[in-house]
Design brief:
Length: 80
């Protein structure tokens, strides 16, 4: 094996766990937080709502009514 092939293998072996960690953070944040807590020897965090998703309703985005149908405007395509 050449030095470049070993370097390439090392980069790939390093990138795979890192990408898995990022994906777990986005798709399963509660599970990843529990895993980190267990690795640190701490109790797992309480399951609850994540910040911004129904946790406080201070921004009013949850209670914002949907736009009425009269506010919609049709899209017209013109040929030149």
């Amino acid at each position: 094996m050449t030095a470049y092939a070993l370097f390439e293998l090392a980069v790939i072996v390093g990138a795979l766990p890192l990408s898995l960690w990022v994906v777990l953070g986005k798709l399963a944040p509660q599970w990843r937080a529990g895993l980190v807590a267990r690795l640190r020897g701490q109790p797992a965090p309480e399951p609850g709502s994540a910040g911004g998703c129904g946790s406080c309703n201070s921004c009013g985005s949850c209670d914002t009514p949907k736009a009425a149908a009269k506010d919609e405007k049709p899209v017209k395509f013109h040929r030149h």
